[in-house]
Amino acid sequence: MLDIRLIRDNPEDVKARVKLRGGDAWQLIDEVLACDEERRNAETEKQALQSERNSTSKQIGMKKKQGEDTTAIEARVRAIGDRIRELDTLSESVSVKLNDLLMSIPNLPHADCPVGTDETANPVVKVWGTKPEIENPKDHVELAGNLGLISFEDAARITGSGFVVYRGSGARLERALINFLLNTQSEEHGYQEVGVPFIVKRECMEGTGQLPKFEDDMYGTEEQQMFLVPTAEVPVTNLYRDTLLQEKELPIKMTGYTPCFRREAGSAGRVNRGMIRIHQFDKVELVQILKPEDSFAQLEALLGHAEAILQKLGLHYRVIELCTGDLGFSSAKTYDIEVWAPGQGQYLEVSSCSCFTDYQARRMKLRYKDADGKNQFCHTLNGSGTALPRLFVALLETYQQEDGSVLIPEVLVPYFGKDKITPITP
């Protein structure tokens, strides 16, 4: 969430920056200020009353020693106590409202973010490799069907639409990719691998910004107090919630695999055909926790760590920077990596790399003690390293052969065990 002091000191600047995102969240700023003033006024009155009660209570003792009547003074003390309790109740309710308002305001876009209203304003900042030349390319649905790699029918039978079952070489390829991604990030880029639960508490979802805004897209259990993870970002980042780190412990770099569960599955049509949008998918995530002065430079490094995967696999891709109107709720700056899928005839997003500044850390109460002994909020980064379904799609469609087989990139062969997937023979 945003620093209340920033809003208090620069309300018009905050409004202007939130407006760049589109929507009407900027209108909440005045409500935040009103709640903040009411809470502070209540606290000021309470402190004054507590001081008066203390001094008045001393008078009662003195007057009793002198045999004087203390009825009026005792009544005043009782009235003060009643008012303090009223102020406590008021302050608590206003604080809850203030917190809810702050949780509903998105992060401020970085000053260098391109300004725009939607994805059409996202500039391409890098292109790697060239589009493969394939005459009449098949899409992954046809390729995987002929090779017996996936089954939507089996998934529908046991769960419903929007899910997939991997079979044979398909299951092996998925497992190979997960191991390849984790090993690359942990062995070459210095991330500590972590294995985390796939169910998290509500406060963890609030900490990284999925709640309350995106609750309808999540799979909740236990009366919406527990959730299936929508991304490994949630459990991995929250490993340090309610934590005070020492400066020497930073930066922290972690990578972890989880399945991801999301209700939103997009609209029907070719753009979402097959594995492009499904309710459950695998993903390897990269998370960094670091000092504020390092965060935006390290975002560029993290982007490179995600790009390295596609380069190793020889997949053509481009990097776009998200404009202010397309930024994720918690992000201050984001790059998306889109891989080319010949059978789709389009780029598919496989990674989103973001700097959240101290926005998530404030929600999670994640701090560190600096060299001067002061407690500071950390900055957090995360990026997909990468999402599996679209990577799976791009691999099949890029390395398809005329005979219906699919070659396996050399770097993946040690994980997969062979260099080609061939059609199933009757």
Question: Can you put this structure into words, describing what you see?
Answer:
This protein is α+β, with helices and mostly antiparallel strands and 426 residues long. It has 2 domains: 100 residues, Helix Hairpins; 303 residues, BirA Bifunctional Protein, domain 2 (2-Layer Sandwich), CATH 3.30.930.10. The protein has 13 helices and 18 strands. Strands 1-11-12-13-16-10-9-4 form an 8-stranded mixed beta sheet. Strands 5-7-6 form a 3-stranded antiparallel beta sheet. Strands 8-14-15 form a 3-stranded mixed beta sheet. Helix 3 packs antiparallel against helix 4. The longest helix has 38 residues.
How do the helices and strands line up, and which of them pair or pack?
Blueprint: H1 4-9, H2 11-19, H3 28-65, H4 71-103, E1 124-128, H5 140-147, E2 150-151, H6 152-158, E3 165-166, H7 169-188, E4 192-194, E5 199-201, H8 202-208, E6 220-221, E7 226-228, H9 233-237, E8 243-246, E9 252-261, E10 280-290, H10 295-312, E11 317-321, E12 333-341, E13 346-355, H11 359-364, E14 366-369, E15 375-377, E16 379-387, H12 388-398, E17 406-407, H13 413-416, E18 420-421
Parallel strand pairs: 4-9, 8-14
Antiparallel strand pairs: 1-11, 2-3, 5-7, 6-7, 9-10, 10-16, 11-12, 12-13, 13-16, 14-15, 17-18
